[in-house]
Amino acid sequence: MRRRHHGRRLLAALAATAFVVLPAAPAHADAIRGQQWSLEAMHTEQAWQTSKGEGVTVAVLDTGVDDQHPDLAGSVLPGKDFIGFGAGRGDRSWARHGTAMAGIVAGHGHGPGQESGVLGIAPESKILPVRVILEGSDKARDRARKTRGTALAQGIRWAADHGADVINLSLGDDSESAHPEAGEDAAVQYALSKGSVVVASAGNGGEKGDHISYPAAYPGVIAVTAVDRWGTHASFSTRRWYATVSAPGVNIVIADPDRRYYEGWGTSAAAAFVSGAVALVRSAHPDLRPAQIKKLLIDTARDAPEGGRDDAKGYGMVDPAAAIAEGAKLRPADLKTAHAGYGKEYFGPGPEPADEDGGSVGWPAAAAGGVGALLLATAVALWRGGRTHRP
Which of 54, 62, 188, 386 could form a disulfide with 98 if both were Cys (CB 3.0 to 4.6 A apart)? Predict the structure, then answer.
């Protein structure tokens, strides 16, 4: 059975989301893990010898997170909803994308020995859920399109003020009308100044014009493009100057509030993987500043493109184990130098002014959780496996 959901991008058109539900199949304990090729590709076993993300909080700014999902139980902190309307717990259009991203970052599995379910890159980290967008299938999306607001900027600032070591932004506007927003730009710089590392998806517009995506293009952000299991640039992944590193974004196993597991693709997944990688580095080296961590990821990236960097893959595939090892070489004096701000007053053409009523002219209070750079654009149910009992 194939179901396609078509929406319109934030301010322009929302990315389409498709689900293909396969017949039920036995859910062996290692079945999901065997399909998580990203764990091996990112050298997680080597990184986990030093850190699994303990003591690190990753804010997931998204459609919400299912804190009762077995793969995330006990790892989700009390969060904040900056939308205030739309689908709620129990609705099909609630927290799907956000739960998927949280699982990529901090999933710890479930069952005997935690051998079943999704295992995240930083399974001992904590998730701080911040709801700033709606799912593409949410019936309230029409209301959201008519609503001006600053949910994203507010969410970034709130996360920075509430202990977020890493801020994951698996979302963005890469429509033809996308442009920098003063409020968002300032919020990103505020978060960086507070010590929060900001990670964003580069965009899913590689086959639709490679339009610039925000917030990925703001200074200081670690912008992530997508590659497949062979390290090849994913054709859908936006190519732009702001690309920092690449990460898995094709055929990614994701958890869902319906207790099924799906397979999907998108730079949103790639950004979540890098957020998890940053959590590992931050856990191992808590005194590093955002700019230092960004530089570590750049300096230790694998499979660098010819010339050292390109717009498709940035500086190469993120390697948290190598970044952790390199971070151990930093001297105390090095820890005082890094700042991830502007060289000039503004970035590019500069932020747009606020409108007369004080709101941003950009993001509505809620965008469907598939906006441009964000959503897993395809998902495939791997099996039913029965509804998992909650611990």
Answer: 62
